[in-house]
Amino acid sequence: MAIKVGDIIPDGTLQYVPYDPSEALNACPRPLEYKIHEKLKGKKAIIFAIPGPFTPTCSEQHVPGFISAADALRAKGVSDIICLSVVDGFVMNAFGKVSGSKDKIIMAGDGSATFTSALGLTQDLTKNGMGIRAKRFAIILDDLVVKYVGVEQGRTLEASGADVVLAKL
């Protein structure tokens, strides 16, 4: 069953590499743990998921939309904007560098889909050679309570795009 408005977000641990402007583009630092309840307790946050870094909709629309909207989201009280994908933290770090997310978005991997599965928001893309991945979604949290869940049915951004999330705050 998928997460819904009013639920407490499940606890989970993602992998991420904090933004470091002095880090070389080809550097490969070890990801750190991003513990959902520990990091987001008492905060307003956005978690949005992409099925695959370096894929067209994710690279060309979804992530750039949140990068562009980051200041407006922060102006509405959002402290953490997390881009989640069912890949490892190394891949998300590389994707963050290429996408130019810098310190605007936390690029986090859920390598085994443990957290995404707890949300009930996985999809099987095995026929596309991608295995189990996250559905494209966005969640607004306030002190760990889900205030909005938008899950896409296709390659659109009608439920999970930055402009939609901004309008829901």
UniProtKB/TrEMBL annotation:
Gene3D superfamilies: Glutaredoxin. One of its GO terms (cellular component) is cytoplasm. Residues 3-169 form the Thioredoxin domain. This is Thioredoxin-dependent peroxiredoxin. The lineage of its organism: Eukaryota, Fungi, Fungi incertae sedis, Mucoromycota, Mucoromycotina. The keyword Lipid metabolism does not apply. InterPro entries: PRX5-like, Redoxin, Thioredoxin-like_sf, Thioredoxin_domain. Keywords: Antioxidant, Oxidoreductase, Peroxidase, Redox-active center. The active site is at C58 (cysteine sulfenic acid (-soh) intermediate). It comes from Syncephalastrum racemosum. Thiol-specific peroxidase that catalyzes the reduction of hydrogen peroxide and organic hydroperoxides to water and alcohols, respectively. Plays a role in cell protection against oxidative stress by detoxifying peroxides. CDD domains: PRX5_like (cd03013). GO terms for molecular function: thioredoxin peroxidase activity. PANTHER family: PEROXIREDOXIN, PEROXIREDOXIN-5, MITOCHONDRIAL.
